[in-house]
Amino acid sequence: MVELKSAGESIMSQLFAGDVYNSSVYLKRCFPEIRSSIVTAIGQDNLSNKMLKCFESEDINTHFVFRHDNKAPGMYLIETDETGERSFTYWRSDAAARKIVDFLDAYTLAQLSSEEMLFFSGISLAVIEKRSRESFWLKLKTLKDAGVKIVFDPNYRARLWQSEDEAKCQFENAFDLADIALPGVEDLSALYGINSAEDVIEFLKLFGIQEVVVKNGPESVVTFDGDKYLSHHITPVADVVDTTSAGDAFNGVYLGARLSGKTITDAVQLGALAAGTVIQHTGAIAPYAAFKNAMAETYL
Ligand code: ADP
Asked: Is the pLDDT of residue 86 over 90?
């Protein structure tokens, strides 16, 4: 999405962000050898051109970025009141990205079938138009049957759904297909009243998901590998500036690490380091040099 933020009186700064995009950025920054493609739809307008350039500047493959004839990207405005509280206003109901399923024809699906992994979130599900949902699930099943690992983060944003039941129904389709789930306790607490990482795992076990990684802010990350539970200590960050995209950074780096053959334990440590770094900066995307420096120590 296009992000607008006040940058002083009468000045507005304009960036690009979105949960799947944020994850892709952090994956590439830590694992440049992995090809990471974004699957979305943009328009023919100038902002869409800039968005495409932004993806390319982060070294994200844009082969699956489609151009809708007459829609434009969704947009949101972040405002901060005098107490520092942020509020968001969205214009996304007519966004080009809502049409993405229309672009996933047989040829595109065949290309995607040879990819290793496909990641989407609860926000992706809310964005896809209702009329396309059935088609989306069939297409996702085609990819899964072709051997693509399906990864789902049930990011829940109540205002994007008409009812909790509608969200639950879509999330449960995703849980049924997912090979890896990366839930936050908060999301499942809001929807299902599940309040601990352990209970999140018990709940997701019912869907037969092989790898579950439960995030819980500064609390321990709890994982399940189909057999064993592990609790991974997180060192709380003392000077949290902005928690935007903590979960996204974690997801991108965790998945990059797993694709690189690292163990769940090592992948959690890298994901947590990335997330802990991102929350020490404002906005979804931390400055490149600061992020790389913080991660570099671990790679040495
Ligand atoms: P989300 O952004 O999805 O709400 P969380 O708030 O659960 O995600 O945080 C995701 C990850 O970010 C956590 O698992 C942890 O690794 C890291 N994190 C979040 N808050 C803190 C914190 N205060 N100190 C250190 N790490 C944190």
From this structure: no
The whole-angstrom separation of Cα 50 and Cα 37 is 17
Query: How far, in Å, from the CA of 16 to the mean position of ligand 1?
Result: 21
Quick check: is 248 catalytic? yes
Under a CB-based contact definition with an 8 Å cutoff, are residues 90 and 76 in contact? yes
Given CA atoms 141, 139, 55, 35 in this order, what sign does their dihedral have? positive
User: How much is the mean pLDDT over the chain?
Assistant: 95
Which of the 8 DSSP states describes residue 186?
H
The arithmetic mean of pLDDT across residues 160-185, rounded, is 97
CA distance 98 to 83: 34
Ligand 1 neighbours, Cβ below 6 Å, are: 184, 186, 215-218, 221, 234, 236-237, 240, 243, 246-247, 250, 272, 275-276, 279
pLDDT at 82 over 90: no
Token pair for 111: 């290309």
Distance in Å, CA 275 to ligand 1 centroid: 6
Residue-wise DSSP of 70-116 = S----EEEEEE-TTS-EEEEEE-TT-GGGGHHHH--HHHHHHHHTSS
